[in-house]
Amino acid sequence: MRRLLLALPFALLPLAVTQAAVEHDHDHDEHGSLSAHEHGVGRLNAALDGQTLELELESPAMNLVGFEHAATTDADKAKVAAVRAQLEKPLVLFNLPKAAGCVIATQELESPLFGDKPDADDHDEEDAKDGHEHELDHSEIHAHYQFSCSAPGALKTLDLATIFNTFPATQKIQVQLISPSGQQGVEVTAKAAALKF
After folding, report:
1. Secondary structure (DSSP) of 30-76
2. How far apart are CA 115 and CA 1, in angstroms?
3. Which of 43, 79, 131, 149 could form a disulfide with 102 if both were Cys (CB 3.0 to 4.6 A apart)?
4. Cα 169–chain centre separation
5. Nearest to 176 by CA among 2, 3, 16, 1
6. Contact present, 47 and 54 (Cβ < 8 Å)
């Protein structure tokens, strides 16, 4: 299943290339590469293969906790802990229908705000300090979930309304979905938060 989710970006590459071309003129970071970090916008990769549902949510920390700096105050630390606790309940967060019989097989949460360090491969030696500061200035939260669903046919829609209600700074989510009915790339908002499998 991991291979299926990893193949998702390649399957939807034409959509990504089109989107990158549109954003190319005005969305560069200081290194001149295309930046995927946009406040208010999250990304969700979803794949349903047999009885396995895999969801990978990526979001700027600003959308979820309201800041991107290291949590130093008690209030900031409490906010990070509360958001982590919410992300640790994906069955609630993604509003999966009980009829589908989905249970969590694995889940991983990563963010510099959770104390995770950036990969050493991402930065060379002289940029290590600068890169870590940049990482905290533009922190993202990554959540990866794998579910085993006893009745995957009951997964008719993926409803993201709870994500928008729980994290109101999230204005839209760019979704890439592979399901038995095909593949699609769509953008959902709080007003239109559901998509069909």
Report:
1. TTSSBP---TTEEEEEEEEETTEEEEEEEEEHHHHHS--S---SHHH
2. 28
3. 149
4. 14
5. 16
6. yes
Residue with tokens 């959902």: 188
- Residues 6+ positions from 139 with CB-CB distance below 8 Å: 60, 61, 68, 69, 111, 112, 113
- pTM of the shown model: 0.74
Here the tokens at position 162 are 């709870």
Nearest to 164 by CA among 81, 60, 94: 94
The mean pLDDT values, 10 residues at a time, for the chain of 197 residues are 49 41 36 57 96 97 92 94 96 92 97 75 42 57 98 93 96 95 93 90
Please tell me the distance from the alpha carbon of residue 88 to that of residue 93, in angstroms, as a whole number: 9
Structure tokens, 165 = 């209600």
Distance CA 160, CA 93 (A): 8
